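Appendix B, example 12.
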Amino acid sequence: MLYLKNLNFASKVPIEIGFVGIYRWFWYLFKLVVYLFVYKPMKPRCHPEFSPAKDVTIVVPTIDHGKEFEEALMTWLACDPSEIIVVTIEAARAPLELIARRCDPESQVVRVITVPKANKRLQMIAGINETKTDILVFCDDDVIWPSTLLTWILAAFENPKIGGVGTSQTAIPLGKRFTIWEILAAYRISIRNVEICATTAVDGGVCCLSGRTAAYRTDILRDPNFQYNFANEFWVKKYHQHSGDDKFLTRWLHSHHWDTWIQACPQADIKSTFKDNYKFLLQLLRWTRNSWRSDIKSIFFERQIWRRTPFTAYTMADKFFNPITLLVGPVTVFYYAFHQSELGPNYSTGEIIGTYVVWLLLSRAIKYLPHFIHRPQDVLAVPIWLIFSWYFAIMKIYCLFTLHVTDWGTRKGADDKETPVKGSTADSAVNLTADASQHELLPIRSSSSSLSGRSHLTSVKGSHLNLLQALVVCSLLCCCAIPVSAATALPKSSFYTSNALVDGNYNEMVNNRNYFASNSYNRQVVLALAKLRKACDKTLAASNETIYSVTLKTRLPASNNTKDYYSLARYFFPDTSEPVPNDLPYVDLDPE
């Protein structure tokens, strides 16, 4: 029998460990109280500004066409959106169109378009550029919606400061009953619901608007500057990020002065499936790496989140220490269990370890009460969750040192880099040339862009830190680090776009020069001028600054291309003191 009558055992354990436990419980209980008693979802108005049938387009990037998609599609149609755009590859087009016709026989709502290559970010941009409504909702292909979801999401957009809206989630099984993997996923979702509601209620921020379902103002996403950075996010200059799109979108809203909101209520709660086998661990690897990369950028380099939503920023920073706090407890207890002389003769190894295990099981059962209210039978999985949490702590540390792995990992063909799938570019809003699938790069800002609100570029300059610098910075906070590159990392190879930065004559360029300079577009504009498929009407001669006429599809002189770039850059940015970059590649404007 286990006796707990000698409580002076606690005094023998380092007092710092007790403080860590008190802090962790205080932090969780604070979020739980806010979740239960402070947070309230926004209710729809009697006469709303937005309506689903008029103002909402659903964009679904997918390469799958199973029964889960058809079931989900029926629930989206029940929400009465203006349009549903399914973005896929050519190989999946026919079966997806067949499903669309079954669910939408008159073809009035569902439309299937294709991109040349399976890449979620490019598929999302294709959907953005095809959207004609004010609100765009991204959604995964297996997410089940309540029929009231769009009405409740739109309620948050009545506030003109809100740029993105997410929802609460509930896990559902793939089969008839939950596997242990799905129960573990459900535990995580329950804790996430508590966290995002707490941060929303305290300062209006959120760590991530989940890509499973999130709504945005379309004008924010139509910004070509957003699209360029979204399609060209790199880690340490060379690792192209394929996943993590939802973290990027959330970070973009924070850094461009848009508020976010979470609608957590039965009317907006989505049902989602998770991997029902060991592949759930692969999902966790991807999510954890994405969180590390994005949170490091937000906390250490962009830093706007500290000023706008400090509670959310602290919540993100607190997660950096979770692996340490999760592992310190058991390590300390096991140390004292096998060094009994330091505790006195009254404690056996079994008593020490048994007491600790009982406390862990009891505390976890209390912590996950919000989940057990809906699924009380899952309390039996608490011991497995306990073991899993230690495994996850080690995994999180492993992920920190493998941030260069940016592939999807759980979906075959989702991030194919070598053999792009040829599709119908006519149906794709990403108007790529024949070579574009090799480069995966999207347009930069156009002078004709119509932007809404405060969506201005905030460039992160000089953040191509080397490994040593990043180690020094991050080691002060979490004992280890990985460097981060700017979101606007420039490619080394040439690339092309059919969306001209300047589509017109020379005078139009001159009129735009101050606009570009004031928004710190120097590097991007100079590159874009070199990349235009349709060459500019005029260009500068490097020798004497004289203007010469050129024909379409011409090229900058190969013999003096560096000076030409410099002359062109200096002409368009006479009012800025920022030096012109010296690493611009030569780009042929007339590719064979």
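Residues 387 and 395 are 12 Å apart (CA to CA). The longest strand covers residues 83-89.
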